[in-house]
Amino acid sequence: MxxxxxxxIRINLNPTTGREQTGEARPCLVLSHxxxxxxxxxxxxxxxxxxxxxxxxxxxxxxxxxxxxxxxVIAEQIRTLDLSQRWxxxxxxxxxxxxxxxxxxxxxxxxx
Length: 112
Prior knowledge:
By secondary structure, this protein is an alpha+beta fold. It is built from 2 helices and 7 strands; from the N terminus they run E-E-H-E-E-E-E-E-H. It has a single domain (7-111), classed as SH3 type barrels (Roll). Strands 1, 2, 3, 4, 5, 6 and 7 form a 7-stranded antiparallel β-sheet that branches.
């Protein structure tokens, strides 16, 4: 399993509760470093992607134009997932490092 940082994967996030993003085959952005993903045998840290684009909500980071996936990364809803225990597949898309850094910087503002 060679999941890379910045890769967009589709993954089943169920079960969920409350206001967590739900859904089978929801797109998510991999935030954890590639070395972490490899060392942990499929354990990854992701943020779900929503089709909503609302620039006034600072924790919804709009995906740049030119990608198949449209919408926003939900920076505050990070999840640590074990890919060996969930259905998932790669979309084949990778977002740029600068974008990943912007998502992580937004998350850092929330937890620092």
